[in-house]
Amino acid sequence: MILYCINSKERMKKSKSSLDLRYNFISDAGAYYAAKLLQKQHNFIYLNLMFNDIGPKGGELIAKALHKNTTLKYLRMTGNKIENKGGMCFAAMLRINSSLEKLDLGDTDLGMQSVIAFATVLSQNQTIKGINLNRPILFGEQEESTVHLGHMLKENHSLVTLHLSKHNVKNPGLKQLCDALYLNRSLRYLDVSWLSVVSNNIKGEGLVALSESMKTNATLSNIYIWGNKFDEATCVAYSKLIEMGRLKPDDTDVQPYKVDGRMYLSEVSNGLKRHYYWTPTYGEAFSHSSNAGFSLVPVGHQL
């Protein structure tokens, strides 16, 4: 299929600015042609290769093709197991590429080394506005990657959305991120839920610190925490944020309620990537709040 796309000028003309090849299982062989496509400098800004059975070698080919590509704005590699080796190639690419604005590497089995590499390069890259590093394969208890991501947020002034789902973030690591948020004025979307930065083994103290950072950081608007461990202090803190209007109900994935005088948080579906793996072919079935994140960083019509 991808070879057909490369050789068909009429198809490229009809697709105008985007090419969606998700779920076609093109593998590394197809990734070779995808890389060739990127090297041909077609005038498209969006390429979706999610869940195509692309491995480390295919990831390397695509990353290297982006060294010279100056048109692509949004690349989705979601679900392709490029692993740590492929991740390192994409991190190296971001040192060179100055046009890519949104990069989705969620569920690609990134390793500790590549996550740290992304944190390092994003301290200098001021072009990327949205990045998804969900569900890396991390070992150990020292949270080295979270520490580096915290340092990055202190230096980066362009990143708008950051997805860190299932990074096994704990209270010390979250405090590193909170300290950075006191200085960062560009980040609007931080997902610490089990779908983004959620399900990270964060407990009350860290979550309360995160709520406190929202009181001083006026830019941060979307925050997702479902899947972590809520104590009463956490429930009260986020209830107050919502009550005072600092955190809008549509911009989070929790909703406060009270039983026998005690505050609790329940899950709501806002921002839980309702259209992450699939999107309607036309029309808007839901508001932006139901598919927040990268939608906060438009790079083209409906991208």
From TrEMBL:
InterPro entries: Leu-rich_rpt (IPR001611), LRR-containing_regulator (IPR052201), LRR_dom_sf (IPR032675). The keyword Repeat applies. Keywords: Repeat. Pfam families: LRR_6. This is Leucine rich repeat containing 34. It comes from Pipistrellus kuhlii. The lineage of its organism: Eukaryota, Metazoa, Chordata, Craniata, Vertebrata.
